[in-house]
Write a structure and sequence with these properties.
With 251 residues, this protein is an alpha/beta fold. It folds into 2 domains: 17-42 and 201-250, Medium-chain alcohol dehydrogenases, catalytic domain (Quinone Oxidoreductase, Chain A, domain 1, Alpha-Beta Complex); 54-196, Rossmann fold (3-Layer(aba) Sandwich), CATH 3.40.50. It contains 8 helices and 10 strands. It has helices spanning 44-64, 81-92, 104-112, 126-133, 151-156, 180-184, 202-214, 231-239, and strands spanning 17-19, 35-37, 72-75, 96-101, 117-120, 139-144, 158-166, 189-192, 222-227, 246-250. It has a 6-stranded parallel sheet with strand order 5-4-3-6-7-8, with helices on both faces. Strand 7 (158-166), helix 6 and strand 8 (189-192) form a beta-alpha-beta unit. It is globular. The two termini are 35 Å apart.
Length: 251
């Protein structure tokens, strides 16, 4: 496979770079060891919108629970930035995808990302629909970045021995619960991951990312961009669930 750039932390003067972290600024001082070269063939907007979230989707679908051909995968908040990437990467691994989104307006983006079925959460019981689609068995894995509000439905959607991969808490943190619940619901597996255990895979992921984009297997949806000065408007759009994909702040 073509090499798309040097390894993480190996930076040349003038090179385009990305980093993981929060920064609402036009300039930032960042240790070189935390900088990630932007691969050749990847635009800066694509890099800003997709490199880091794409890695999380890659880590979850390839390592946290490696999707196998024919697996049913339920993806909460499937129209979000990482949700759309999860849909696409699960399909790359030949999984079958049920995407959950909040409105019919967002359904088309989830289907464009490869979802076989879409559940509108405001109109249906997620777990009942997941079991209907899978003929009563339940799904092999749920990827959930919502947290508290979807936790029960995610557990109830799983097949025997299914995996729940939680990676966010958009609705709040999942409260403490009795571990016996996992046994009672079918000897389930649960993890809360930020992708850190799989960070050594980042250089290989970058090669795959560029290859998938070139081959038309993966796209990074940028919903809209805002000037940095309008960051508050961007946050309001997220809070009002107006976004499908990623939002960029441009200095």
């Amino acid at each position: 496979m073509e090499t798309v750039g040097p390894e993480v932390g190996h930076i040349q003067p003038g090179e385009r770079v990305n980093f993981v972290g929060d920064s609402y600024a036009t300039h930032a001082l960042v240790p070189a060891a935390r900088l990630i070269p932007v691969p050749n063939g990847l635009g800066l907007e694509e890099a800003a919108a997709g490199m880091n979230q794409g890695f999380l989707a890659y880590a979850f679908t390839h390592f946290a629970y490696p999707v196998k051909p024919g697996d049913w995968c339920l993806i909460q908040a499937a129209a979000g930035g990482i949700g759309l990437l999860l849909c696409q990467m699960a399909k790359i691994r030949k999984g079958r995808v049920i995407g959950v989104t909040s409105s019919q307006e967002k359904e088309k983006f989830v289907r464009e990302a490869g979802a076989d079925e879409v559940i509108i959460s405001r109109q249906a019981d997620i777990a009942k629909e997941a079991r209907r689609v899978t003929e009563g068995r339940g799904v092999n894995v749920v990827y959930d970045g919502v947290g508290k509000d979807t936790f029960a439905a995610s557990l109830d959607s799983l097949a025997l021995g299914g995996y729940l991969v939680i990676y966010g808490q958009a609705s709040g943190y999942v409260p403490p619960f009795d571990l016996m619940t996992l046994q009672e619901k079918g000897s389930l597996f649960l993890t809360r991951s930020n992708g850190l255990p799989y960070l050594k895979e980042y250089p290989h992921y970058l090669q795959q990312l560029v290859a998938w984009i070139r081959q038309g297997q993966l796209s990074i949806r940028i919903d809209r961009t805002y000037p940095l000065a309008d960051a508050a408007q961007a946050h309001a759009a997220f809070e009002q669930r107006q976004i499908s994909g990623r939002v960029l702040l441009v200095p």
